[in-house]
């Protein structure tokens, strides 16, 4: 840390170096003087430009150099194996989310169709054409509870199917990647 001279320290710059008021010496955390503010003022007055307090002596005497920008690192990696159990868990949760979305979407669609009177109009159309076959009520067959029950049963089968297929694909990927080396991915550090 810096030496304790009993004088208040005003601020820290972005490099972690301490700056003090004019007439005092700015010190780094290693307690070595960087440049005194009086010397910086005299040197800057001679050069016609003001320099910040945190400018090292080497930068003042030799001119400020632009810091080099590090190049982005690139790594080429291969995905050679996936864990089938983790694929099973993730696919199960995604399939459950998809099932919930399907049920809610079907309920909203049914409410929209019912509000515009589609089911009543289809029932009236069937009765006028004589295809109602003895008082067939289209709206009672496609009630909200019937539609939601059918969509729920379909979603349960879909969840099971998605989980089984995803697990089988994970096992197949492991077999194929042992033969050809897996999927090659290039990652960049931006």
UniProtKB/TrEMBL annotation:
Give me the stretches of Polar residues compositional bias. 18-33
Q: Which domain of life is it from?
A: Bacteria
**Residue ranges of the region described as Disordered:** 1-33
Q: What is this protein called?
A: DUF3566 domain-containing protein
User: One Pfam match, by short name?
Assistant: DUF3566
Does Ribonucleoprotein appear among the keywords? Answer: no
- All copies of the DUF3566 domain together span 73-189
Q: What keywords would UniProt list here?
A: Membrane, Transmembrane, Transmembrane helix
Q: Membrane-crossing residues?
A: 90-113, 147-173
Name the source organism: Bifidobacterium crudilactis
